[in-house]
Amino acid sequence: ARPRVNPTSPGNNYMDVALPVQRRLGALQAMCMDVTGVACSGFLHASAVARGLIATAGHRNVLVVCAENPKPILNFSYRNSVLFGGGAAAGVWRAGADGENGMHAVTLHSDATHYDAFDIDEHDTMVMKGKVVGDLAPGVLADATRRALEQADAGLDDIDWIIPHQGNINLIHDVQDALDIRDDKRVLLNIERRGNTSSVSVPGCLSEYVHDGTIAPGDRILTMAIGRGFSWGAMVFTYGRPRTSGGLSRERR
């Protein structure tokens, strides 16, 4: 039988992804676990867990998999349901050599004040309070981005590419305005092709631009996302091997 690898798949009562994926890959000696409950910011949270496993548990390679199939919970009487899409993306975080650091900064935050802004109703369909998200998300994402850059001892000029969560185009524009990058050509989007794919949004967009040659090994990436809860954050990392060891700041190109 085909394993159910998505928490929203019908019949997946345990809400697990990691174990079915491990079995299908045949990686039966690998420790596996799920990072759930944060929805759209899942890639950032799972990447932070991966860094912790590498730094403290001696792991050399950590596979992060994001998969989403929102169709079973979409309520098509809700007009914004058409913005959502399904998909999957995966990436590997690897332990680097001494002095190498590919994940320069990650900041994660949670505030349960508006926990019900994204919820599942008694009919097992999605309920989303779009105005609450629209009012709060741009400010907290911009703040998390500034914190991540500060933690990385870097500025926006040190970044090659910016990948925001592809929630909706208005949210993206509001975050761009808050960071004064509205017309910045480094901002990469795929929402017009993929829609809001939740946790797949950031790694999926990254993958598209890697495969078309836009993003190259050694490029510095800034990303930010907000998900259920609210749970949000920002991350600064290098795709592939860093060009140089040490800090992120560099001579301007």
TrEMBL record:
One of its GO terms (molecular function) is 3-oxoacyl-[acyl-carrier-protein] synthase activity. Residues 38-111 form the Beta-ketoacyl-[acyl-carrier-protein] synthase III N-terminal domain. GO terms for biological process: fatty acid biosynthetic process; secondary metabolite biosynthetic process. Keywords: Acyltransferase, Cytoplasm, Transferase. The keyword Cytoplasm applies. Pfam families: ACP_syn_III, ACP_syn_III_C. InterPro entries: ACP_syn_III_C (IPR013747), ACP_syn_III_N (IPR013751), Thiolase-like (IPR016039). Residues 149-238 form the Beta-ketoacyl-[acyl-carrier-protein] synthase III C-terminal domain. PANTHER family: 3-OXOACYL-[ACYL-CARRIER-PROTEIN] SYNTHASE 3, ACYL-COA:ACYL-COA ALKYLTRANSFERASE. This is Ketoacyl-ACP synthase III. It comes from Streptomyces scabichelini. The lineage of its organism: Bacteria, Bacillati, Actinomycetota, Actinomycetes, Kitasatosporales.
